[in-house]
Design brief:
Blueprint (H helix, E strand, L loop, with lengths): L12 H5 L12 H11 L3 H9 L7 H12 L6 H14 L5 H17 L5 H14 L4 H16 L7 H9 L8 H17 L8 H10 L4 H17 L3 H14 L5 H23 L1
Helix pairs in contact: 2-3, 2-4, 3-4, 4-5, 4-6, 5-6, 6-7, 6-8, 7-8, 8-9, 8-10, 9-10, 10-11, 11-12, 12-13, 13-14
Length: 278
């Protein structure tokens, strides 16, 4: 069962689009909004041109946009990244959504952008943001990143079970349903990654399924994973429910052949269990 990379390079388009609608001290200009749309479409150079031609004063919204564009400007230089980090640090000193977004981006700089990564520093920035603005989307997103760092990258705690427990302790702080689901999913996968008893993964994976919202490969993998782990741990009724759900909902995928074979094996296990009770 594959474990996704803990450090995706780009944020999904919709996350950048949120910055089109954050509460601002003054309405963002069309130039800044257009720049965010271009960033969301990964048209970083076009966004830089749009901002350079803008006649808008240096509002906090524009400064955030310019710092974000600078992070991915080509060629990437450490000097430019350090300048962007300094600007983000200044913006993060506020208490609005621009401050929260700036604080989150500072963490991402130390996590994935600087040539010399500093993962403990990234983790500290995510923690500070969550303590300062716990209800912000960017703070909530930072908690998920902190969870991934805790699971796979930070030097302490080092024992797998302790890593998982430390990351799980962040879960009650996640109020956004989709982000809580994402951490639940990563917790379940981390149990499997570290070779811990599969029964420990199931509560996290079932919670992710209850939250809903997954689509495509991620959804299909989750359904099969729960079915397989339920079968391994002897919960045959649950295994059957998930395998049949996959067969019913994902019949277009060739993996359904394997799922049907598992259902046949499951039927044999169920018969053996019934006979053992006689």
């Amino acid at each position: 069962m594959p474990v996704p990379t803990p450090f995706p390079r780009r944020a999904p388009r919709w996350r950048w689009c949120l910055l089109l609608f954050v509460p601002l001290a003054a309405p963002a200009s069309d130039d800044v909004r257009d720049a965010w749309r271009l960033v969301a479409d990964h048209l970083n150079r076009d966004a830089a041109v749009r901002l350079s031609r803008s006649r808008e004063s240096q509002t906090r919204a524009r400064r955030l946009a310019e710092a974000t564009v600078a992070i991915d400007a080509q060629p990437v230089t450490q000097e430019r990244l350090r300048a962007a980090e300094a600007e983000l640090a200044a913006l993060a000193a506020g208490d609005d959504e621009i401050a929260a977004a700036a604080g989150y981006l500072r963490g991402r700089l130390y996590q994935v952008h600087f040539q010399q990564l500093d993962l403990p520093r990234a983790a500290a920035l995510y923690r500070e943001l969550a303590d300062r603005q716990p209800r912000s989307h960017w703070a909530q997103l930072g908690l998920v990143k902190l969870g991934l760092l805790t699971l796979y990258a930070l030097p302490e705690p080092s024992a797998p079970a302790e890593r998982i427990a430390a990351a799980a302790a962040l879960r009650p702080r996640l109020q956004e349903k989709e982000l809580g689901r994402d951490l639940d999913l990563q917790l379940g996968r981390a149990v499997l990654f570290y070779g811990l008893p599969p029964a420990q993964a199931l509560p996290h994976l079932l919670a992710a399924d209850r939250a809903g919202g997954l689509i495509g490969q991620a959804y299909e993998d989750l359904i099969v994973m729960i079915g397989e782990l339920s079968m391994r741990t002897g919960d045959y009724a649950q295994a059957r429910a998930y395998f049949e759900r996959y067969e019913r909902e994902v019949s277009y995928n060739m993996r359904v052949v394997t799922v049907r074979r598992r259902l046949e094996e499951l039927a044999a296990l169920e018969r053996a269990a019934r006979e053992a009770k006689r």
